[in-house]
Amino acid sequence: MTCVATYNRDGESINGIESLMAIARRLSTVNRPGGIYFRGQADAEWGLRPSIGRLDVRYGGRVLARYTHDDERNLLHRFRRHTYSHLNRLLNEWEALFLARHHFLPVRLLDWSSNPLVALYGACCETEFLGRNASIWSIRRVVSEENDLNVFTTSLSPVKVKGLKILYPYYGSPRMAAQSAVFTIHEDPWRDMESYFPHGLPDEHFDVAELVRFEVPASVKRVCLDDLERLGINHRSLYPDLDGIAKGLWQTIVLRSGNPIS
């Protein structure tokens, strides 16, 4: 069978935490079963594509090439070799994938969160995009667990996963736990996720029953960040390491100055 999935690009605007939580409650009603996950993006014009599919190989400010499947395999292979001296053991492929994503190596994972406030922070926090409308995306997983991808038991390589699957990781870092992280893993990370709708894929290769996009106007980003700060949602709490503390303090200065860097 093929999963028939729905996609709504024109969801209502999110004007603050209250409107976001009202949407989250409505999406989570018992009449609409399936887990709900959220993703925030700083620019409303961006599509949904993993980092390996949207980043370029650059040198000296010039685009040399697009990443390829071979590049991804080589990056993960080399990452496993070079992390051996730090961990005193060889990572399996799934461990390497999650840890590589944690350290911003381009991979075929797209980040989501079960916490809508984490998504709102992601939509608003990038200082260079404060003047742009943002998006919060929501996905609903299919109800059946029959075709779930279990990273604890599978012998399947991440680069051989078919279709588009929701992936529940083991939390290999405090950052992933703090962000309530969930991922989608994409067989073709160079393809925008929206293009799978409405026809989907065969059930065993597709976990997403619904995709909705909500717009966050640029005019509310600062207010949202202030409210999130009061709730303890900030860069320091979501990236609980020294890099996170440093960037969080820098962001606070920029945001409170009223003059974001462009």
Give an overview of the whole structure.
The structure is a single chain. It is built from 9 helices and 9 strands. With 262 residues, it is of the alpha+beta class. It has a 4-stranded mixed beta sheet. A hairpin with a 2-residue loop joins strand 3 and strand 4. Helix 5 packs across helix 7. The longest helix is centred in the N-terminal third of the chain and has 19 residues. The relative contact order is 0.22. The mean pLDDT is 84.
* Overall outline: globular
Stretches where pLDDT falls below 50 for ≥5 residues? none
Counted beta strands: 9
Straight-line N-to-C gap: 49 Å
Residue fraction in strands: 15-25%
| Fraction of residues in helix | 25-40%
Radius of gyration: 19 Å
Reconstruct the topology from this structure.
Elements: E1 6-8, H1 17-27, E2 36-41, H2 51-54, E3 56-59, E4 62-66, H3 69-87, H4 93-102, E5 109-113, H5 116-124, E6 134-141, E7 164-167, H6 174-178, E8 181-186, E9 208-216, H7 221-230, H8 235-238, H9 242-257
Parallel strand pairs: 1-9
Antiparallel strand pairs: 2-6, 3-4, 5-8, 6-9, 7-8
